[in-house]
């Protein structure tokens, strides 16, 4: 079970829960109401006082497709390279965007997962 939503009392008041540090928190409706969920085999959950922690490891990157080729930072124009300090190659999303970013004067609307370094394309 991931989380369970607590019900309001008969008097209409919200339930309260005591946290590990001894404070009392009001239970609000933003708690997940699912009664259960399936976790991956390498996931686990810890029952804490008043809440549960769910640990799900990050996905491992899939193998590059044959048409995906690593793009070295050294191949970028010199003025862009400081934005990638500490990196040797572009990530998969950056590889797909490099031509649009460097060879076009069109605007780009880039939507990608958090931590995919989208901000590096603001050069």
Automatic annotation (TrEMBL):
Matching InterPro entries: P-loop_NTPase
Annotated region (Disordered), positions in chain: 1-28
Record protein name field: Uncharacterized protein
């Amino acid at each position: 079970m991931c989380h369970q939503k607590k019900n309001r009392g008969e008097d209409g008041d919200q339930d309260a829960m005591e946290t590990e540090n001894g404070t009392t928190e009001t239970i609000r409706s933003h708690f997940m109401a699912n009664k259960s969920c399936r976790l991956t085999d390498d996931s686990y959950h810890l029952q804490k006082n008043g809440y549960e922690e769910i640990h799900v490891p990050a996905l491992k990157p899939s193998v590059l497709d044959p048409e995906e080729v690593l793009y070295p930072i050294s191949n970028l124009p010199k003025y862009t390279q400081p934005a990638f300090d500490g990196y040797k190659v572009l990530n998969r999303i950056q590889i797909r965007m490099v031509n649009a970013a460097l060879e076009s004067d069109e605007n780009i609307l880039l939507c990608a997962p958090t931590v995919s370094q989208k901000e590096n394309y603001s050069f």
